[in-house]
Amino acid sequence: MVQTLEGIVSEHAFFKGLDERYIKLVAGCAKNVRFDEGQIIFREGDAADEFYFIREGLVAVELMIPQRGFTTLQTVGEGDVLGWSWLMPPYRWRFGARTLQPTRALAFDGKCLRNKCEEDHDLGYELLKRFTFVVTERLEATRLQLLDLYGAPA
Amino acid sequence: MAPQLENSIAARTGVDPMVPELYCIQRLRHETDDTFTIELSPTNGRGGFSFLPGQFNMIYVFGAGEVPISISSDPQNSKTFEHTTRIVGAVTRSMGHLKKGDSLGVRGPYGTHWPVEEAEGRDVIIVTGGIGLAPLRPALYYLMAHREKYHKIVLLYGARTPEDILYRRELERWRSKFDLEIQVTVDRGTRGWRGNVGVVTTMIGRSPFDSTNAIAMACGPEVMMRFAVMEFQRRGLSSGDIYLSMERNMKCAIGFCGHCQYGPAFICKDGPVFRFDRIEPIFGKAEI
Lengths: 154, 288
Fold this sequence. Notes:
The complex is a heterodimer. By secondary structure, chain A is an alpha+beta fold. Chain A has helices at 5-11, 20-27, 110-119, 121-147; strands at 30-35, 40-42, 50-56, 58-65, 69-77, 81-82, 96-99, 103-109.
């Protein structure tokens, strides 16, 4: 059975508890996308007009470092959210994203959502709460990575 | 008090727990730049060696000293056993220079074990980082040997870089059996690495286990385990379903010396494997 976008959105943990009318609004800004292995989803510095829910596959969030090449900072996989630069000016990607495996995702139109959030601040608050949770998790994880926990004891 | 206790253990078991026995190195294998595995067997035709997954031995390197090291081999093999360790000080450095045929002193096995029997009929989620995979390897051997007794078995393993992944061939072999879900992640990806990059604990949230009927085992740096516990609890596991292997500076291994005191417990005899509800009030407390 083919699942509707609304169904996919409402079942995602990120939108758990979101009012049904907002689910419809959000799903109205979404579309299904597929990427081949090795495909660039977005490049550092490009306009950040979308974000993604990864449904299947693996994506590297990467940064180009001169003399080192593209360096993977983190990978995101099934169930993860990819991208929040669409939320904050100047709406440009701070990092790039490239698939490591064939990947299926839901792509959300960031511009469309930003407009809907401006029109309805309750929706904006609900989305910001959810993205804050994701950002906090990523920050915690980054701090742990910086600790180099598995390195030799000091 | 101490000599009395020592005598009582000796009287009960017929073995003085402070006297090492001689074992012979059968093999020394380098796992990564700074870790190696030694395989040991008894000398002089003595009988085999049995242990439970999660237990440790005190290894005496002659002329260098004694260190506690978890047993990392298959508990069903009683002819030989293995220890995997990282080179962190004088004793392990000396140990790394030994060769096949050299002798070591061994006291043990000591300590509590992973709850492999309590886990029967349930999902098992194992989270480990760095050298913490070594004490869990015997539990994995046991689970794989009795695979039909368990539901899903999930191993989440974090390493510093792809070059620091322990037991790489074994992990690939286990993964190819399709009845063990293995996810490996590294803190820093290097060129050519096409797997996960990120902290191992972030994988718990999306890991495919049934939190209403699962048992969790974790071993690694204590900070990693703190975040692992938070993620387990967020998934709905109770404190009684979570087991951690704790580490402190162990010396005597039999609860005499107090070096490894952890609140009301001694890691050497009450641990190293603790059910989390037993240590929850003191876990993560800087003063303990």
